[in-house]
Amino acid sequence: MEQSIDLQLNYPLISNQSDIFKNLLLSAIDKADSLLTVIPTGGRLKDKEIAGQWLSQAGFTVDPVDVYIGSGGHHSIIVALLAAKLQNKAVVVEELTYSNFKSIAKLFNIKLIACNIDERGIIPSHLAEICTLQKPDALFVAPTVNNPMGYVMPVDRRKEIVNIARAHNLIIIEDDAYGFLEEAILPNFFHLAPERSFYIYSFSKPLSQSIKASYLLAPKPFSKGVIDALRSTTSNNSPMLMEVLNDYITSGELIKLIDEKRREGFKRQQKVRELLAGYQVTGHKNGWHLWLNLPDGMSSAGFNQQLIAAGVKIVPSVAYSSIDGLHQQAIRIAFGGESDFDKVVEGIEIIKNLLA
Q1: Which of 8, 15, 281, 352 is the most buried (most CB within 10 A)?
Q2: Nearest 10 degrees: CA dihedral of 238, 244, 248, 250?
C-alpha cells in the first residue's frame, strides 16, 4: 500500500533543523547535574526569566512572576481552564475554532458559543450581543495567524474585545500556536488586559513537535489555581527540554529558525496559491496552511473520504465548526506534514483532480 500524503498535520520543519537540535541536545546533556534535581511546579526562576524576556515587547514588559511553564499547548489550555474553574461553564469561540479545543471542552462539559468572524477575526458587536444575552464565562481565541483561517486581528479590534470583556467580566484565553509567523509585533490579550487574560505560547510549531514545552501567562489572582492545576496534571515540566529550549532562545538560534520558517512558509503559501488559482482560498502570507472553500453542494466530510481513498490527508471544515451541522464547506490544507515539498504539490494535484 502506498504511503499517504500528509496535508493534515502541521509541524513546520526546516531542512537543517536537526543538526542544530542535536548540538543543543548534547549541550543540555552536559548539564546532567541540573537535570537530576527536583524543579518547582511552574518552572525554575531562570526558565521564567527567559520566558519573560521572550514574551515582552516595547511597552509591555512581562514579569517572570506571571509566567508558568507547561508541557505543551494543549496542557497549558487545560491548566487555564482548570485554574479559571470553567468546567461546566460557557465559553465563546470563533465560529471556526481549533478542533482540539472542541475535544478539550467536551472533556470538561464546557458549552461552546459560536461568535461570528470576518477577515479580521471575532466581530466585536456579535461578542457584545452574546455577552448580553447568554452571559458566557470566558472567550477562547486565536487572533494571530488563526487556525484555520490565517487572519491576524488588528490592535484596535483587540482593544474593543478587551473593553467588552471588562464590561461583562469575561475571562480571555488566547492560544498563540502560529503567531510566530507574523512579522508585525502585536500585543497579546495578556499585555492588554493582564487582570483577566491567559496567554499560551507553545513551541511545537516554532521549534519542533518534540519540544513539549509552553509558556503560560496568567492573571495574578489565578496563581494558586494555576499551580494546583500544573501539580495535578504533570507535577512539573522536563528540565531536559527546558535546557534545550533556553539554549535555543539565548543563543539566538530560535529567532533565526523562526525567520527561516517565515520565509519558507511564504514560498510554500505562494506556490500552493498558484496551484489553486481559480479557487477561493484564505491564508496568512507566511502560513503553513490555507483554507480552501469547496464548490456549492460539496460536503467537506464527503470530500475528505474521497481524499482518504486517494491517499491524501487533510482536515475537513466540520472539524473546526463550533456549531454542529452548520459550517462552511471547506478543507484546511497544511504544508508542514511533508518535509519534501514535492509531496505537497502531488497532494494538491490530487485535490484539484477530484474537484474538477
Answers
A1: 8
A2: 80
